[in-house]
TrEMBL record:
Gene3D superfamilies: P-loop containing nucleotide triphosphate hydrolases. Residues 2-249 form the ABC transporter domain. Belongs to the ABC transporter superfamily. Ycf16 family. This is Fe-S cluster assembly ATPase SufC. Keywords: ATP-binding, Nucleotide-binding. It holds the Pfam family ABC_tran. NCBIfam families: sufC. The gene is sufC. InterPro entries: AAA+_ATPase, ABC_transporter-like_ATP-bd, FeS-cluster_ATPase_SufC, P-loop_NTPase. It comes from the Bacteria.
Length: 260
């Protein structure tokens, strides 16, 4: 579904500031991946670049989604193809209700993908069913997007948007950060309900704790702008016990496009 090939990225305002330094990553259909690493390793940058954030410039490499390069596509065009990014810090949009935003987004994506659009009554039924995924109450639909929401409510709202828009590939940028244990369980349960053999999920996280509730197929570690180690859930458990120091030497090793 997604192939990141030798991706090098810098900050557009400062080309000398290199953040990603040759990332290689392959995400198959129906897979759940976790990307871990300390602050400044490039995890969040990778998710933003895949989504098309304009603050970054790709200087080398490519990003292929379903076999086609998306480097020249704007963020909305990538979303129309089925990409979704849940923000680490969800933005408040006063004056625009969740229901209005999601109906417009859903129908725009449906039209681009050749699917049937929903009229207001059909969408009302559909969106109310999706509320159960993250245990949200109907009154959330008529509130402005994230305005006045608690931190946990904002993160649940991101997963709710994911449930409604039904993307093919979702990047979740530290969705677990700042959540208490009850909110974490609700968010994890929502992700588990959404994920299936046709959809892929990439979780960007510092900690192993969300992986207690979501079983990843693959775990990757990023250090200094590279993927330096890949494995299964046991790798996440080892990181929880030993930290990242034992992997530091790998960050400076060229792997010639192959993951360790």
């Amino acid at each position: 579904m997604l192939e990141v090939k030798d991706l090098h990225v810098c900050v557009e305002e400062d080309p000398s500031e290199k953040i990603l330094k040759g990332v290689n990553l392959t995400i198959g259909k129906g897979e759940i991946h976790a990307i871990m690493g300390p602050n400044g390793s490039g995890k969040s940058t990778l998710s933003k670049v895949v989504a098309g954030h304009e603050a970054y410039e790709v200087t080398q490499g490519d990003i292929l989604f379903e076999g086609e390069s998306i480097l020249d596509l704007d963020p909305d065009e990538r979303a129309h193809k089925g990409l979704f990014l849940a923000f680490q810090y969800p933005v408040e949009v006063p004056g625009v209700t969740n229901k209005t935003l999601l109906r417009q987004a859903y129908n725009t994506i449906a039209k681009e993908q050749g699917r049937e659009e929903l009229d207001p009554i059909e969408f009302e039924d559909y969106i109310n069913e999706r509320l159960n995924v993250v245990d949200m109450k109907p009154e959330f639909l008529d509130r402005s997007v994230n305005a006045g929401f608690s931190g946990g409510e904002k993160k649940r709202n991101e997963i709710f948007q994911m449930a409604v828009l039904n993307p093919k590939l979702s990047f979740l940028d530290e969705t677990d950060s700042g959540l208490d244990i009850d909110a974490l369980k609700i968010v994890a349960n929502g992700i588990n309900q959404i994920a299936d053999e046709e959809k892929s999920v990439v979780m960007v996280t510092h900690y192993q704790r969300i992986l207690d509730y979501i079983q990843p197929d693959h775990v990757h570690v990023m250090l200094d702008g590279k993927v330096v180690k890949s494995g299964d859930k046991d790798l996440a458990l080892k990181l929880e016990e030993q930290g990242y120091d034992w992997l530091t030497d790998l960050a400076s090793v060229s792997v010639n496009g192959e993951q360790n």
